[in-house]
Design brief:
By secondary structure, this protein is an all-alpha fold. The protein has a domain of 44 residues. Helix content is 60%, strand content 0%.
């Protein structure tokens, strides 16, 4: 039961626990950096003008646009769903 708590979600997105830890950590650090850039921009509007939006765009690209859903296993008890046109 404990092992499942650490492996179920990473497996659902096609990652091992270690790969998921690395990926989630890289997202977290990027979000912290983007957050600091937004705070700096709030205080000094002439600084970090595009840093926050660039961070969001990069994270979206990494998470949504380039996710290989073919590696992800369907959740336990859920039917497999085709993500690409023409796949059965």
């Amino acid at each position: 039961m404990i092992k499942r708590a650490f492996t179920e979600h990473p497996a659902s997105v096609g990652e091992s626990y270690g790969a998921h830890l690395a990926q989630a950590s890289s997202f977290g650090f990027a979000m912290i950096g983007g957050g600091f850039a937004c705070l700096i921009h709030g205080l000094f509007p002439f600084l970090c003008v595009k840093s926050g939006s660039r961070c969001i765009e990069d994270l979206h690209r990494r998470m949504v646009t380039h996710r290989d859903r073919s590696k992800a296993a369907p959740a336990q008890g859920a039917p497999a769903v085709s993500r690409r046109p023409g796949e059965a």
